[in-house]
């Protein structure tokens, strides 16, 4: 492993490659995902039901890919699996840009969803393998740079689509290709010292691992937290438009979300230092922030309250989303880091998939307030698996030398 750190920030050079590459592919991906439904409906002439079904199937493909890629990364090495994932994401994007028809787009989007799981899971595994002493810090850097990429990509995607939807897919593929070149050139195999899983370890089922009960607790918690958080994506725009607010008034909340994630890192650092020095405390504080945000939504206050809600919930997001992968990495036995990341990532995908269905049912039958009440229930239940993690936290973190901080 390359142990030469950047002097100013103490970041290993391979980690810098991963986070800059993460920013690049996040920009490219964000050209496309906000526009998928519009492309299917307006360009390909498909119904919104068909568009929604395909997007749900893509999420399912990503979920399956996360489980598989984690096992393969431990068996054959995270870098190799990541390279295959990048190639697998580039190919369907090129095909769709050349042949923008439903018969190519539908299977291409499913394959793309499956392939990107082979990128995300190995990245998380490599962050911990290459920088174990960084603890939560490496995951937080990756999270911040990815969200910065989302902010840039979503801002530019509409302008690019106005020129050509083909260009949207082609540029996405180009950004993934740039990331592939960065991995091949600046992250050589000799810098990756993670050992592939030995045949003897392959035979040991994951459920026999000492950390497996804790892993299940983390999976349950992140499933519930995402099930709550995703309501802001799915239910909030409908409730706001029903109240007479415009889509730009809703969209600006997500611009605020991206700004907070990047600019409020000193605030998160202060919270971690003074309120939540351990991962379990970060999870509890995150639940508190989520609960306050959803209570604000339940109150049906005037428009400025939505800004306050977004600030508070984003602070909670900044604590839990990088924290859970970091916790999963700490409990993983040697040789199974990627497998544990795949399982946690699959649980998060499950929350993103099931949350909109349950929130939609609550909204359709009982109104928007029931969706926020459901989110509050999810967050409250998440306290239990977080408590189960806390009971075993010291067992896995003692002696690691990790220091919890933001960036």
TrEMBL record:
Molecular-function annotations in GO: transmembrane transporter activity
Domain Major facilitator superfamily (MFS) profile stretches: 14-394
Bilayer-spanning residue ranges: 15-33, 53-74, 81-102, 108-131, 143-163, 169-189, 210-232, 252-271, 283-301, 307-331, 343-363, 369-389
Keyword Cell membrane: yes
GO CC entries: plasma membrane
Subcellular location: Cell membrane
Membrane topology annotation: Multi-pass membrane protein
Source organism superkingdom: Bacteria
Record's keyword terms, sorted: Cell membrane, Membrane, Transmembrane, Transmembrane helix, Transport
Predominant subcellular localization, coarse grouping: membrane
PANTHER family attached to this UniProt entry: MAJOR FACILITATOR SUPERFAMILY (MFS) PROFILE DOMAIN-CONTAINING PROTEIN (PTHR23517:SF10), RESISTANCE PROTEIN MDTM, PUTATIVE-RELATED-RELATED (PTHR23517)
Protein name: Major facilitator superfamily MFS_1
Protein source organism: Desulfitobacterium hafniense (strain DSM 10664 / DCB-2)
Taxonomy of the source species: Bacteria, Bacillati, Bacillota, Clostridia, Eubacteriales
């Amino acid at each position: 492993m390359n142990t030469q750190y950047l002097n100013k920030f103490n970041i290993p050079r391979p980690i810098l490659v991963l986070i800059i590459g993460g920013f690049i592919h996040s920009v490219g991906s964000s050209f496309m995902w906000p526009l998928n439904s519009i492309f299917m409906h307006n360009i390909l002439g498909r119904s919104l039901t068909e568009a929604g079904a395909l997007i749900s199937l893509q999420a399912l493909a990503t979920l399956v890919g996360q489980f598989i890629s984690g096992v393969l990364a431990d068996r054959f090495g995270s870098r190799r699996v990541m390279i295959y994932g990048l190639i697998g994401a580039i190919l369907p994007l090129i095909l769709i840009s050349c042949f923008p028809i439903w018969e190519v787009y539908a299977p291409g989007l499913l394959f793309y969803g499956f392939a990107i799981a082979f990128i995300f899971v190995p990245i998380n595994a490599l962050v911990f393998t290459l920088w174990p002493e960084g603890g939560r810090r490496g995951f937080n850097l990756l999270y911040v740079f990815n969200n910065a990429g989302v902010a840039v990509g979503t801002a530019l995607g509409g302008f690019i689509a106005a020129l050509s939807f083909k260009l949207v897919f082609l540029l996405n593929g180009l950004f993934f290709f740039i990331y592939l070149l960065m991995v091949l050139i600046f992250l050589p195999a000799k810098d990756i010292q993670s050992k592939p899983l030995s045949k003897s370890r392959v035979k040991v089922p994951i459920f026999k691992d000492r950390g497996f009960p804790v892993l299940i607790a983390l999976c349950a918690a992140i499933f519930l937290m995402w099930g709550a958080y995703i309501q802001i994506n799915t239910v909030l725009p409908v409730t706001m438009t029903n109240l007479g607010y415009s889509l730009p008034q809703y969209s600006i909340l997500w611009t605020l979300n991206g700004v907070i994630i990047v600019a409020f890192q000193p605030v998160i650092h202060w919270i971690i230092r003074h309120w939540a020095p351990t991962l379990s405390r970060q999870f509890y504080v995150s639940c508190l922030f989520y609960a306050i945000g959803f209570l604000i939504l339940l109150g049906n206050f005037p428009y400025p309250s939505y800004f306050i809600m977004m600030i508070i919930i984003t602070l909670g997001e900044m604590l839990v989303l990088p924290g859970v992968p970091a916790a999963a990495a700490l409990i993983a036995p040697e040789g199974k880091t990627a497998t544990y990341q795949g399982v946690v990532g699959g649980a998060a995908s499950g929350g993103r998939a099931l949350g909109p269905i349950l929130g939609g049912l609550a909204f359709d039958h009982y109104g928007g307030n029931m969706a926020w009440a459901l989110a509050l229930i999810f967050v409250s239940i998440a306290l239990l698996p977080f408590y189960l993690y806390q009971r075993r936290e010291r067992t896995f973190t003692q002696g690691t030398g990790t220091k919890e901080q933001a960036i």
